[in-house]
């Protein structure tokens, strides 16, 4: 493999910038451009040395240079890291002198790709690297680092190993039926257990998705029920440092707060009404747009008024969603009985009464999980669903030959998940999402 280099720190001004080189020629390059008390190739692995980078006879910068020798490096290859002064110019000058014939610019994610190809990490761990970089909340970062340390991989490998045992047993039965002794192993029970384990992982999907992407909560309801008042109250109670930004394509205002380490974005539907007759249609059609983005929806109802047709239209629209009905204006007298097919909470956006209770209910919505939580990616979810289907097929088939076939395809899917089976298109789509220098 050729030697690659890239600036690993983000562009712009900063205290330092780091340039990374990986590959066989890393040390030669360091020799060529670096001058210090000792020469990089004489240095032991994982040592830092102070010196200067030159482009020919021109001094570029004063730097720290780290030498890391194969195989105990991020990529598994010889790696050199140069920490120089930050800013737009310095790191680029150094990179240019590195690339000068000896190395080429790394593609996005290529260092991590090499780590994967050299068996330093599996594909699930490689994907976790990107999750760490992209984490926007404490929780997302925590789950990402646990995946990088191999917790998810371990679970997947455990499932795979059980299936391999089942496969071996079944093949023995098929090939040597005369030797088959009843040793008490119930193959089908093992397959059922494995399927349950896959379902446990899938059960945490919704929660994992919230941790990764945050959660979006549209506030909907007819005009004048207090949606905007509630929106403002929520953002204020949380002392969120947020500026509601008017949606550019939709008539919404958004504000994000962090609840229990999860990023929660509330959306207030605002906007103008065109004419009196259109109020209802407008309200509903605007709501539809944000509802489709919502993970949990707050339906605001003015409890000082009886339910009207417009309220009922909203209730119908939301029937199959995760909804919390917020009966607002509890500071004034209630007018009417409410038959609402959702969980409800009585609050006052005006006085702040019971807003904490509303928060508890929101918390409940996102912390409920029927399974073990991992921050699964869409790719993982698709594969695990496939594994589950194969195992269902395996349990349904009534010949050993068919069962073993389904078990094998489940194993293959899992090997695709960890990257033991390498698919060019999958690698391409994963690593092209990375930043350059990672
Ligand atoms: N008494 C009382 N009035 C409220 C409350 N929430 C909102 N309002 C009033 O209801 C009216 C409509 O509120 P607004 O937030 O603009 O409703 P929206 O059209 O649903 O966004 C305003 O006059 C608010 O002051 C509440 O909890 N109690
Ligand atoms: Mg409003």
From TrEMBL:
Residues given in the record as GTP binding sites: 224-229, 243-249
Name this polypeptide is given: tRNA modification GTPase MnmE
GO cellular component, one term: cytosol
Cofactor comment text: Binds 1 potassium ion per subunit.
Major localization class: cytoplasm
Species classification: Bacteria, Bacteria division WOR-3
Binding site for (6S)-5-formyl-5,6,7,8-tetrahydrofolate: 20, 81, 120, 438
Organism: candidate division WOR-3 bacterium JGI_Cruoil_03_44_89
Family stated for the protein in its record: Belongs to the TRAFAC class TrmE-Era-EngA-EngB-Septin-like GTPase superfamily. TrmE GTPase family.
């Amino acid at each position: 493999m050729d030697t690659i280099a890239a600036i690993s720190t983000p562009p712009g001004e900063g205290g330092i910038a780091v340039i990374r080189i990986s590959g066989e020629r890393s040390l030669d390059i360091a020799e060529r451009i670096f001058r210090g008390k000792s020469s990089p190739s004489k240095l032991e692995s994982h040592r830092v040395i102070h010196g200067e980078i030159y482009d020919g006879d021109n001094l570029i910068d004063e730097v720290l240079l780290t030498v890391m020798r194969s195989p105990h490096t991020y990529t598994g290859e010889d790696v050199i890291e140069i920490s120089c002064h930050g800013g737009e110019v310095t790191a680029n000058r150094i990179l240019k002198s590195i690339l000068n014939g000896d190395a080429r610019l790394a593609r996005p994610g290529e260092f991590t790709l090499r780590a994967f190809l050299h068996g330093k990490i599996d594909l699930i761990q490689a994907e976790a690297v990107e999750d760490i970089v992209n984490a926007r909340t404490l929780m997302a970062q925590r789950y990402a680092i646990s995946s990088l340390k191999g917790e998810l991989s371990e679970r997947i490998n455990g499932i795979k190993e059980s299936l391999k045992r089942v496969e071996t047993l079944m093949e023995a039965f098929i090939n040597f039926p005369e030797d088959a002794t009843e040793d008490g192993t119930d193959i089908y029970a093992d397959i059922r257990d494995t399927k349950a384990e896959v379902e446990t992982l899938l059960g945490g999907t919704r929660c994992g998705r919230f941790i990764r992407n945050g959660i979006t909560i549209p506030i909907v309801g007819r005009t004048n029920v207090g949606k905007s008042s509630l929106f403002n109250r929520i953002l204020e109670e949380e002392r969120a440092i947020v500026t509601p930004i008017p949606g550019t394509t939709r008539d919404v205002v958004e504000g994000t707060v962090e609840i229990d380490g999860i990023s929660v974005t509330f959306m207030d539907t605002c906007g103008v009404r065109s004419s009196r007759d259109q109020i209802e249609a407008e309200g509903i059609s605007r709501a539809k747009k944000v509802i489709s983005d919502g993970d949990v929806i707050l339906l605001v109802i003015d409890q000082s008024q009886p339910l009207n047709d417009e309220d009922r239209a909203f209730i119908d629209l939301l029937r199959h969603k995760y909804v919390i009905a917020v009966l607002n204006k509890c500071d004034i007298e209630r007018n009417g009985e409410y038959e609402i097919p959702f969980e409800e909470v009585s609050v006052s956006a005006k006085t702040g009464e019971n807003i904490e209770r509303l928060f508890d209910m929101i918390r409940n919505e996102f912390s409920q999980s029927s399974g073990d939580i991992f921050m699964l990616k869409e790719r993982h979810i698709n594969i695990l669903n496939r594994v589950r289907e194969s195992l269902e097929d395996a349990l349904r088939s009534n010949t050993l030959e068919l069962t073993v076939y389904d078990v094998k395809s489940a194993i293959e899917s899992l090997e695709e998940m960890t990257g033991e089976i390498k698919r060019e298109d999958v690698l391409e789509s994963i690593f092209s999402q990375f930043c350059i220098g990672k």
